[in-house]
Amino acid sequence: MVAPPDNDVLWARALHFQHNGSPALCGVSLGVREGEILAVTGPRGSGKTTLLQCLAGLLPAQRGEVWFNSTPVHTMGAVTRERLRRERFGWIDPVPVLLGELNAWENAALPLMLRGTSRRLAKTRALEWLDRLDIGGCARKRPSELSRAERQRIAVARALAACPTVLFADEPTASLHRADGAQVLRTLTTAARSHGITVVLAAHHTDAADVADRTVSLLDGRCVKTVHLPPLSPGPEEPEEPKAPAEGASPSSEGQASPETEDQASPETEGQASARPDDQAWARPEDRASPEPQSQVSPDSEGHTECSLSV
Fold first, then answer.
1. pLDDT tens sequence across 44-86
2. Structural domains of the chain, with CATH
3. CB under 8 Å to 130, separation ≥6 — which residues?
């Protein structure tokens, strides 16, 4: 067993996990520094949620190691991992999960009260975070009276109100519009930096990666390096190199056909295609086509005919 680096608050080595025989993580290793905002990106099904669950102790890795502040999480029992999540970790789901029996501020203050914080102090902190997320006016409303975007903001306030050491956010803006999601991400990252909270953020779009300090890309359960190529800019057209003419072709026929060839066929071609009676008048003797065989008169008959005509 190898101890993690001292400057990494969270560290994972060679994580493997399978869902019903289907590999979700295939040897993923990474480290997260204290106060860092790390974005885990990749398409759906790449293993982002499974990675966050293994790092948070929600899902024990089948192989590999997970360390938190030089303490091995992969060797902890279920009760110890639950205490660790309650006291040091925060979690945000893609879909808001709230208790319908509690109003908005009570849901946001629930982690603090579970730690033993007084109700008054927990309420004060919860209301502060609800105001920061522009949802303070809904503090006394039940979840059934709120929209999905409002419920998600309450879930974010609940995770931040407890001031966790590490906050795991599994696509926290998936149920929000683009403008609302951008505001939530700004508030989340600003609060994390001001309070020294380490954030591990999973997202399949680039908006989350823009606000992160570092990005790790997953594909089919493996860490990959994605290179984004710049778009091709239209430049000056370069002259094409002349192609070698084909055998038997004249240089003038290269590239494009001559107007005479496009518009009309050459006289020789027309003469071969269809022989007209008047073509024989200007044809050369050697090229003149022989007429079809007819009954020819002999010179004697020809002379006799001339004589008969003269009579």
1. 888 899 999 999 999 888 899 999 998 999 999 999 999 999 8
2. 36-52+88-224 (3.40.50.300)
3. 104, 105, 108, 136, 138, 139, 153, 154, 157
